[in-house]
Amino acid sequence: MASTDHVIEVANLRKSFKSYESMSGKKIFLASLRRRYFTKHALNGVSFSVKKGERVMLLGENGSGKSTLIKIMVGILHPDSGDARVFGLTPWENRIKIAWDYGMVSGAHNQMFWNLPAVDTFEYVKGLYEIPDREYKKRLDYFIRILNLEEIYKKQVRLLSLGERMKCNFVASVLHLPKIVFLDEATVGMDLSSVINLREAVLDMQRTYGITFFMTTHIVDEIKALGEHVIIIDKGRVVFDGTKSQLQQLLGSKKQSEIRFEQEMVGLRFAKYGKVIERAPDHLKIEIDASKLKSKEIVNLLNSEGVVDYNVSEPDLGYVLARFYKMKREKG
Amino acid sequence: MSFLHAQRYIEYSKALLKRRLAFKMDLAIITFFQVISPLVMLFVWTAIYLSSGVSTINHFTLSQIITYFFIVAIIYAITPDISWGVLGDVRNGNVFAILTRPLSYVWTLIIGSFANIAFDTLAFALPIMIILIFAAHISLPIITWLLFIVSMLIMLVITLMFEFMMGYLAFFMIEISGLISIYGFVSGFLGGSLVPLNLLPQSISSITSVLPFQFMLYTPAAIFTGAIDAQQAVGSIEFGILWAVVLLGLDFVIWYAAKRHVDAVGV
Lengths: 332, 267
Fold this sequence. Notes:
The complex is a heterodimer.
Chain A: E1 6-22, H1 28-33, E2 35-51, E3 55-59, H2 66-73, E4 81-86, H3 95-99, E5 102-106, H4 118-128, H5 133-146, H6 162-174, E6 180-184, H7 192-209, E7 212-216, H8 220-226, E8 229-234, E9 237-243, H9 244-248, E10 254-261, H10 264-271, E11 275-280, E12 283-289, H11 290-293, H12 296-302, E13 307-313, H13 317-331
Parallel strand pairs in A: 3-7, 3-8, 5-6, 6-7
Antiparallel strand pairs in A: 1-2, 1-4, 8-9, 10-12, 10-13, 11-12
Chain B: H1 7-21, H2 24-52, E1 56-57, E2 60-61, H3 62-78, H4 82-92, H5 94-99, H6 105-135, H7 142-173, H8 177-191, H9 202-208, H10 218-225, H11 230-259
């Protein structure tokens, strides 16, 4: 399975958890005693590979198995069966070895020392990975500048806001310039300018140091800005593995058209040609088959009186994803 | 543990101690309590001796009893709360922060415990010991000092093994605060935290004499106060070493089983 240009290779991973749900009832005491046990199949045979220096977006709805997959890849969960290699090593057998070369940022877990200033965690990371003084200062200055940390990095972590803490978490996880960075919903709570700066930092780090990024998010703008290689999992199975543009073509030859008009009546004429996505008194957004767009009927209609403006574009990524998830749910 | 990168555990321990020193008021309160607790026993036992009108109880003089409880206080001061620490790590997800670094969780606990023991020895145990030696004019033969130090080392190994076992349980059961409290009371009582074990009724002391809890408080304190002589102390230490080896083996078995249970905590 070893291949030199792949940093991650995963084959047929399976993982189940035993869990229980309380039987609902009015009697609290009895309800806590009556439990229904069940097995949740978090991963049902997941396979994919990641090349060195790629930016991978792992997508999927809540509970689809994304975090479980990442925990297996960083070596803290054992799968029930299947194989995985990170830098050519089995992660759950070589966790400490591979941990030198990855960074992990999770929106659900704090990496900082709660009652100490953020800079103390950074110093700890410096000591842990034996980062030379000058190099540490250079890297810290870089992150302080791009993530606007000047005002916050000397404050106690417990006094920081969620977004500020996430920025510090990010720095603490990448200060050692790992070969691969796992970002599991890492921008949760961050303000807009920080999110944009963090995206730039990701792109810059990938360009400058050839770092591979493996990310999960539910934010469409983030997928647009950072996704190169997209993997979608659903109910523990890979249901899409390809590029971002391949993902956008998932809906076949569908295009999106936004038409602006003076009177609502004009707009209504378009509704029958496609699926209405958005509707307002002065504009309409429809999903329309590319072949229909070229028909004389539509061309004439678009150029008729009352139409102020129109555009045709590839379907919006968020819309494609929502349709895709819905399709999968309906198929069951 | 690879000794090539042993430095990382020193870094971890440094951060651990920094975190302890972050809350100065809490540290001051703990220091105050550590010094006060043997004084409470001083008042209680003085009252017992005065009211009963005897000068010795089961060969224990009042000053020996007071010394005994000062040693108990020293032992409590340097015993790290690993079980509470693991429970906290499991509850607040700290395990995740350690396991995503090139660190072994068990080694962070072990090295972290040594750092805490060193800190507590310097901050609490030595000052209490110095006060005790000067206030009570204690002068012990060198052999007693040696036996005392060896019994303190056995005390640390056995206590740490029990603490680790309780910590591992946190991975299985998630919520173990009730169990830790019960363990604290039972091990304390059977170890001699309330009454020196040789003052307990024969039926109870015959049970405690085969259990490992005696080595966690009673044996070092009894050696220091002279309640047991050098020959008895050597025999006791040998038995203590046997228990330490058994518990060490048991810990390895439990850790092997607990390792995979990291899954269960959902880190």
